[in-house]
Amino acid sequence: MKVNELAFFGKIAAGVTHELKNVLAIINESNGLMADLLAMQNQTPFVHSEKFQRSIAKIQEQVRRGVEVTSRFNGFAHSVDHPLAKVDLNVIAAQTVSLAARFARLQYVELKVAVCDRPVMLVINPFRVQMALTRAIEVFTGCMKGGGSILLQVREDPDPPCLDFYFEGEFAEKVIKEAVGAVSEWLEFEELSASEDMRYEWPAPGGGFSLFFAGTLSEKQTITLK
Predict the structure, then answer these.
(1) How far apart, in whole angstroms, are the C-alpha atoms of residue 199 and residue 180?
(2) Residue 40 to residues 47, 57, 58, 151: CA-CA distances in angstroms?
(3) Of 52, 72, 180, 202, which is least surrounded by CB within 10 A?
(4) What distance in Å separates the CA atoms of residue 121 and residue 116, rounded to the nearest whole number?
């Protein structure tokens, strides 16, 4: 896809998410009004009061979830605005996990994220980085036939900073071996990560998979496809 076409897609997607957030805001306001009216009827017996309260609570939760999803997608849509941007790795990780969660659930895998308590700023192409992360997640979850979970943890202490993948419910070694065996999918991830000067290490501390976001890996070895 050409750069101008990608920018147009991002512009339209961002506009749609803004409209969806407006719709959710109106639903939330109407739901709040119903809750207020119901509260005013406390002194008057109402046989369906509990059912209404449960429905109001469900609507409120789904609105919260909808706002979160549309906000994440809005951020993703804006990731194509500039080829290079200064972004927080915490935001990129959380946004990717949120958007990829449904694909993981289809494989009975839960995605979790742990971020740093302060920003970890990088100058990257946000769109390509998120595409690489999503591709890696798709390959890993496809190898976890028995389900389980993947924790993505941001670490700022190494130089350069990195994102660790920890696999639960499956042996990490088995996951990686099968992932590397999926040559075409894994090569796509490698192409995307290399274009952003990202390097990976296996095995990482704790038996996970570490993805470094800038520079080169000193005294570390990357796995090679066979």
Answers:
(1) 15
(2) 15, 17, 20, 45
(3) 52
(4) 11
Q: Give me the helix-helix angle, 183-195 and 126-143, nearest 10°.
A: 150
Q: What is this structure's pTM?
A: 0.70
- CA–CA distance, 213 with 163 (Å, rounded to integer): 8
Tokens of 214: 């800038």
Cis upstream peptide for 83 (omega within 30°): no
Which residue blocks in 44-197 are alpha helix, DSSP H?
A: 49-78, 89-105, 126-143, 172-181, 183-195
Side-chain half-sphere exposure of 189, counting CA atoms within 13 A: 20
Per-residue pLDDT of 77-122, as tens digits, reads: 767 667 788 889 999 999 899 888 888 988 889 999 999 999 998 8
Strand, coil or helix: 107: coil
